[in-house]
Amino acid sequence: MISFELDHHLRHIHLIGIGGISMSAIAEVLLKHGYRISGSDMKDSRILDKLRQHGAEVFIGHHEENVKNPDLVVYSAAIKENNSERQEAKKQGIPQIDRAEMLGLIMKKYDKAIAVAGSHGKTTTTSLLSLILEYARLDPTILVGGELEEIGGNIKIGESQHFITEACEYVESFLKFNPFIGIILNIDEDHLDYYKDIHHIKAAFRRFAELIPQEGFLVACKDDANVRDIYHDLNCQVITYGIKEDADVIAKNIEFNTNGFPSFEVQFKGENIGHFQLSIPGLHNVNNSLASIATAHILGISPTEIAQHIKVYKGIHRRFELLGEVKGAKIVDDYAHHPVEIRATLEAVQKYPHREIWCVFQPHTYTRTFALLHDFAQSFQQADHVIITDIYAAREVDEGKIHSSQLAELIKNHKDVRYMRDFEEIADFLYDNIQPQDLVLTMGAGDVNRIGDLLINRK
Q1: Does some domain include residue 103?
Q2: d(CA 217, CA 240)
């Protein structure tokens, strides 16, 4: 492994897949630290325009001639070994590392590196915590897996020793990180194209927790039984939080206003530290906020400041994002793509003003849909109408084992449900059937949000 502290000989770094949300953020950090950056991606984007403005040399398409004698090549998870640029780097004898390893090396430059891990809620929690630190004038460097309006995108370069990033468990990427504070929000069955079972997943999270140094902290959700299984006998300090369990940090007297936004009292080791109000809906976001509150408290931010700053956060792109209204019905988009996330979002919606809920769900990856098919079928109980569209393949190839129509058939036992594959047809169907005060909720990690845009433009 290359030691980031000793890499003064590295001048030019080439990133394959530079347009991705995480890779582009890494490129910006490296540019800030004075490196010459080049990179390639399959299609142009606003993100790439921003990198060009900051001095990166960007190529569209992957071609061996793009590899112009860099000192190091970094590649994203989507870039396989047979990629033409990776092959050229190998031919030239140029060292190569993946995105997670580079992110781990960057983290070594910061004394207070915070890594937010968990099967669900990473982006929301990272965003909440980032804004608390930013408004508390700690000037953090922030890498978040979504578009955060308050920082103008997915990254903000700070001047302090505070660094915040999401820690993805896919292919055990987060085991290459170097956190001073690690957060574990929850642990569920997911990414079963890589992990064998829940025991394999829990073992990876345990190893992540073991990365934290003795003087560091693990902030862990005590409500989650799988998380409880993995934080015993660690060398670092453990701070637990929760709603249901007797944790170090616990929310009490939870109430919801007419918009479905929760407020609550927080106790830290038995002492009431204040009243907190969120501007995002859902009980699951109370837990996400508790992780942020606990971490900010560790960093010395006063409860009064935390409460003031946490209320400012109004969400992130594709996390219960209000897109607009059509015929008096609200159109909302959400990134939920796992049964646990779907149930949490639909539960949050129950406290949000509405007449009926129309849920349009796009399954994400064949392996996830196949492995969790029956869990998915049970997750739409709180929707009035369900539309299932085709599976978004992402990184996978269709082997013919699973189809969206199979999920729709299973859900039919419980709900008004239909399988529809054409986005234009879905938008037309919704337009013809929604009523004033209805809520249309598009859900999934693919491009299902386009349906909301089509529906809004339909008017």
Answers
A1: no
A2: 10
CA-closest candidate to residue 302, choices 270, 265, 274:
274
Give the residue among 100, 140, 107, 128 at the shortest CA–CA distance from 20: 100
pLDDT, tens only, 327-365:
999 999 998 999 989 998 998 888 888 899 999 999 999
Co-location of 63 and 171 in the same domain? no
- Which of 28, 85, 112, 123 is an active site residue? 123
DSSP state for residue 400 in the 8-state scheme? S
Numbered residues of the known binding site for ATP: 118-124
Q: 372 — phi, psi (to 5°)? A: -115, 25
Which residue's entry shows tokens 């490196």?
A: 35
Nearest partner of 291 among 201, 206, 224, judged by Cα? 224
Average pLDDT, the chain: 92
Is 166 labeled as catalytic in the residue annotation? yes
Rounded distance between C-alpha atoms, residue 352 and residue 214, angstroms? 43
DSSP assignment letter at 194: T
pLDDT at 5: 45
> Given 112, 122, 156, 176, which residue is catalytic?
122
Answer yes or no: do 190 and 220 share one domain. Answer: yes
d(CA 455, CA 440): 10
What are the distances in angstroms from CA 79 to CA 85, 212, 387, 399? Answer: 9, 29, 33, 21
Q: So what's the pLDDT on residue 3?
A: 43
51 and 158 inside one domain = no
pLDDT digits (tens, 9 = 90+) for 8-41: 578 999 999 999 888 999 999 999 888 999 999 9
Tell me whether strands 416-419 and 439-443 are parallel, antiparallel or unpaired: unpaired
Residues 47 and 155 in one domain: no
- Binding-site residues from annotation: 118-124
Of 184, 175, 164, 176, which is closest to residue 121 (Cα–Cα)? 184
Among this protein's residues, is 271 annotated catalytic?
Answer: no
**Annotation says 240 is catalytic:** no
Full domain range(s) for residue 114: 110-310
Kindly state the DSSP code that residue 406 receives in the 8-state scheme: H
Please report where in the chains the tokens 């609200």 appear, as a residue: 330
Amino acid at 238: V
- 104 inside domain: no
**160 lies in the same domain as 283:** yes
Are residues 155 and 287 located together in one domain of the fold? yes
Q: Which of 147, 166, 169, 321 is catalytic?
A: 166
Q: Estimate the crossing angle of helix 122-135 against helix 283-298, to 10 degrees.
A: 40
CATH of the domain at 353: 3.90.190.20
Mark which of 291, 310, 329 sits at the end of a domain. 310
Q: CA-CA distance, 115 to 166, in Å (whole number)?
A: 6
* Nearest in space to 281 (alpha carbons), one of 361, 360, 336, 226: 336
